[in-house]
Amino acid sequence: MSKAPRSWLPLLLLVAMVVTGLMLPRHNHSWALTVVFLVTTLLLFGWVYYQQKAFAAANRQLQASESHYRSLLELAPEAVVLADASGTIRYVNQRTMDLFRGNFDDFVGQQVELLIPEHLHQRHRHSRSQFAKTPKLRDMGSGLELKGRRLDGEEFPIDVMLSPMDRDGDLHVMAMVRDVSDKKAAEHLIKVSLAEKDVLLKEVYHRVKNNMQVIASLMRMQARSAKNDEVRAGLTDAASRVRAMALVHEKLYQSKSLSQVSFDIYADSLIDDLQSTFGREGIKVKTELAKLELHPEVLIPLGLIINELIANSYKHGLSESEEGLITLLFAKQGEQYRLTLQDSGKGLPANFSPQSSRSLGMKLVTTLVAQLQGELTWHNDNGACFEVLIPADQLPQASPMQRQYSG
Asked: Could you tell me the CATH superfamily of domain 283-407?
């Protein structure tokens, strides 16, 4: 408890003046001087009396204030511990006694390490000394994994808010302690639930991929047994499109996020599949692809566009060539993404137009570009060249990412 300033000095002066005043007549001093001393003594006595009354009133007010604040602390929903600079507990509220399972006298006068697991004592003393050097408010939930220890030895997770206080010029620290056992248990359940959903989602992607591969395999088998060349080509093309979509699901269950796929990794795998399908080793494919993470609703149309344009180069532009080069570029330019596919083949006919083409592949490309609100252009440049411009805001998940590679 803080104390009001003492009034013992004026009282001492009062006694000295009374003694002096009584002695004055014996030394033949004038009675006038004696009267002055007595009047002064009475005035000083009145002042001392007033100061004592003021001191008593201030003391009562201080006691009432401390009683009021202590009552508030007793009603606090959190455990409150007040400790001095040496780490000695000076006060605990009822919630602290309930939380740590002890009586008032079990805590007061003990070191705060009483409330902490023994293996953390040394680290806590170091943290306490560092806090004393630069005391400042530390909020609840500051990202620290803290542990408390009840008097019966049970350990439990806690959050602690620290607030430095000045009491009679000495540093004290008020700690508000919250039991977060229920919060941690809920977080654990959420993590378990998310892990289960991840497993389930991976299983879904895996099964979708397997089913689509079965469909693609059936189409290829049917194509091999078809006697009509047009039917055979149509089934082969359809199987290739199904495989392009199945590959998205394959990459999804292999990804960490389960919701996004790295565009460059997907495109490289798609190109490998196409090269294997057409089996022409003399034709090389060169790629320069932006590293983006895309959602399947964006990646599937992009993958189908790439599938159709590369297949078109194999079947038409380079159909008469033993050797050739197909170049695939994908990069951001300003507020757009540019997809470019160029081959070293014979080029496009003079009157070529995807919109008027009878090819299902070109109609599909036109439809998918429109779905992405993009723009398709084409021209000849030592072979056929297709460019697709897609507004960046149409690829909301296409945020550039620097992936960390191991090794």
From this structure: Histidine kinase-like ATPase, C-terminal domain (3.30.565.10)
The CATH number for 77-179, chosen from 3.40.50.2300, 3.40.50.150, 3.30.420.40, 3.30.450.20, is: 3.30.450.20
pTM of the model: 0.60
pLDDT digits (tens, 9 = 90+) for 370-399: 999 999 999 998 899 999 999 888 775 433
Tokens of 138: 């530390």
SS3 content of the chain, % helix, strand, coil (to 5): 55, 20, 25
As a whole number of angstroms, the distance between CA 91 and CA 82 comes to 5
Apex CA 308: angle with CA 306 and CA 311, to 5°? 105
Q: How far apart are CA 212 and CA 210, in angstroms?
A: 5
Q: SS in 3 state form for 323-365?
A: CEEEEEEEEEECCEEEEEEEECCCCCCCCCCHHHCCCHHHHHH
